[in-house]
């Protein structure tokens, strides 16, 4: 092998090593397995975590929160198809889930057919006056 050829090989190996190192340095955020479908930013977002922290922005994918944080942190996740909504300082609160569970522990079954003292009370719709309601709750 000639000296020039050896130097060429050495330089080629160095360039390949630097290129591989540079590729590793470009880290893609782990949240980006796919881009969020929507980002809501510039808001006053109340979270329900341990500290009830507030955030400026959220990213959503497949109906689930992908990221919650500052505008800068969340907007960096934007992809070519991501819909971005400016909340213009509006407040966002967690959703509430309405279930069809019985409320026996809270107010009894006043909204259903209810037995009180062996007598059928009826439903809430059957109670026409405030007095009837208060008597039923007694």
Describe the protein's architecture and organization.
This protein has 3 helices and 9 strands, in the order αβββββαββββα. The chain has 138 residues and is of the alpha/beta class. A 4-stranded mixed beta sheet has the order 5-4-1-6. The radius of gyration is 31 Å and the shape is rod-shaped. The N and C termini lie far apart (103 Å).
Rounded radius of gyration (Å): 31 Å
Share in helix = 25-40%
Order of helices and strands: HEEEEEHEEEEH
Helix count equals 3
Structural class: alpha/beta
Q: Mean pLDDT, nearest integer?
A: 74
Outline of this structure?
The protein is of the alpha/beta class. The protein contains three helices and nine strands, in the order αβββββαββββα.
Features:
alpha/beta; 4-stranded mixed sheet; 138 residues; single chain; 9 strands
